[in-house]
């Protein structure tokens, strides 16, 4: 698969970021161990080796139209593979689809397509749930290695985690929430 050249930045303590440049955008992929740190004791299997996954796009050329660029998907998936290759078997990436522009369902569908396309070797497990709250849909999920010895425990903790994080996050005004994925 063809992908963009990317670079890794480990300047921030424990946070790992990757960057790549397309014709019209700069992309940042962030692995943040502190995003859900307040829940580690309650959800040890899910969060002891879990990090928040976020990726952002910034305009590089305001005159250029955004297009369906398959190299973006292959680059982000390659970054995820690189990240997992350097982690223990029980590493977990947690994410939620940004909902502030009401395009969270589309983001979820794109992420699902990427997973299905780039996980042909079945090396990763992705689980995502849709939560409906006050007329709005939220998509929250995790990705881990297929070889993770805690798959059952992760699944069970994730169900409770989604409800707990949902009660806190969904009750905040949109302006207080972070933008992820």
Quick summary of this structure?
By secondary structure, the chain is α+β, with helices and mostly antiparallel strands. The protein has one domain. The chain is built from four helices and seven strands; from the N terminus they run βββαβαβαββα.
Binned strand content: 25-35%
> Unreliable stretches, pLDDT < 50, 5 or more residues?
174-180
Order of helices and strands: EEEHEHEHEEH
Percent of residues in helical segments? 25-40%
Gyration radius, rounded: 16 Å
Mean of pLDDT: 85
Q: Which strand order spans the largest sheet, edge to edge or round the barrel?
A: 1-2-3-4-5-7-6
Number of helices: 4
Distance between the termini: 22 Å
What is the count of β-strands? Answer: 7
Question: How many domain units?
Answer: 1
Structural class: alpha+beta
Shape: globular
Please describe the biggest sheet, giving its number of strands, its sense, and whether it closes into a barrel.
Answer: 7 strands, mixed
């Amino acid at each position: 698969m063809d992908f963009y050249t990317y670079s890794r930045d480990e300047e921030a303590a424990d946070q790992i970021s990757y960057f790549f440049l397309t014709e019209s955008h700069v992309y940042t992929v962030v692995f943040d161990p502190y995003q859900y740190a307040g829940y580690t004791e309650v959800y040890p299997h899910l969060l002891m080796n879990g990090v928040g996954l976020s990726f952002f796009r910034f305009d590089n050329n305001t005159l250029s139209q955004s297009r369906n660029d398959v190299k973006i998907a292959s680059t982000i998936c390659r970054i995820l593979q690189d990240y997992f290759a350097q982690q223990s078997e029980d590493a977990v990436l947690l994410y939620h689809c940004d909902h502030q522009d009401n395009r969270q369902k589309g983001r979820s569908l794109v992420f699902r397509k990427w997973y299905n396309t780039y996980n042909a070797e079945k090396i990763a497990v992705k689980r995502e749930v849709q939560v409906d709250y006050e007329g709005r849909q939220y998509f929250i999920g995790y990705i881990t290695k297929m070889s993770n010895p805690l798959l059952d425990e992760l699944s069970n903790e994730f169900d409770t985690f989604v409800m707990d994080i949902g009660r806190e996050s969904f009750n905040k005004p949109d302006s207080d929430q972070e933008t992820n994925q």
